[in-house]
From TrEMBL:
The keyword Membrane is annotated on this UniProt entry: yes
Protein name per its UniProtKB record: Reticulon
Organism listed in the record: Cyprinus carpio (Common carp)
PROSITE patterns in the cross-refs: RETICULON
Recorded GO CC terms: endoplasmic reticulum membrane; neuron projection; postsynaptic density
């Protein structure tokens, strides 16, 4: 009884976590906040293009040098300005240096539980697909992997990620109805396949 209660609580917690995460992603994709979406899109695009030209180590080093150049220049500028004006405003980044950045034990435990739930769910789903618990789902997964072999032959991972940045430019509000139509057609085709293939029907829940 206690185990089932804990499992239900964990499930509710994870549903809330993924719901919140999904809402944040959709806020970005729908450009509800232009500055935030533009910053995320521009930063990711710049990072991906940098990775196509340089190694990961070089990109990280260049980003660190750029950040250090900005902070050191600002620190020196404020120090010179204080010396000229004979003021004592202290360290220009004092407010940020005093911000607490350590993760509490509860936060670490929360993130660990979320990661554990995601990993376990992924492993269970892969087991279900590879051991053909549902024939139609396993066939769809096989077709997807087959299509990915052609996609991988045409593009590398970084190119696909850059192409994925186009998600930020898609007018989702205008294509939601088309996605619904496509989903309906796919479900209809899957239903017909399940009726014709012995053992392909899902068990009634």
């Amino acid at each position: 009884m206690q185990a089932s209660t804990m499992a239900a609580a964990d499930s509710t917690k994870m549903e809330g976590f993924w719901s919140n995460w999904k809402c944040q992603v959709m806020e970005l994709l729908y450009w509800r906040n232009l500055k935030q979406s533009g910053f995320v899109f521009g930063s990711l695009l710049l990072l991906l293009f940098s990775l196509t030209q340089f190694s990961v180590v070089s990109v990280v080093a260049y980003l660190a040098l750029a950040a250090l150049s900005a902070t050191i220049s600002f620190r020196v500028y404020k120090s010179v300005l204080q010396a000229v004006q004979k003021t004592d405003e202290g360290h220009p980044f004092k407010a940020y240096l005093e911000v607490e950045m350590s993760l509490s034990h509860d936060q670490m435990q929360k993130y660990a539980e979320n990661a554990q739930y995601y990993i376990n769910s992924t492993l269970k789903e892969l087991r279900r697909l590879f051991l053909v618990q549902d024939l139609v789902d396993s066939l769809k997964f096989a077709v997807l992997m087959w299509l990915l072999t052609y996609l991988g032959a045409l593009f590398n991972g970084l190119t696909l990620l850059i192409m994925g940045e186009d998600l930020f430019l898609i007018p989702y509000a205008q294509i939601d109805q088309y996605l619904a139509l496509i989903r309906t057609q796919v479900n209809s085709v899957v239903g017909k396949i399940q009726e014709k293939i012995p053992g392909a029907k899902r068990k009634a829940e």
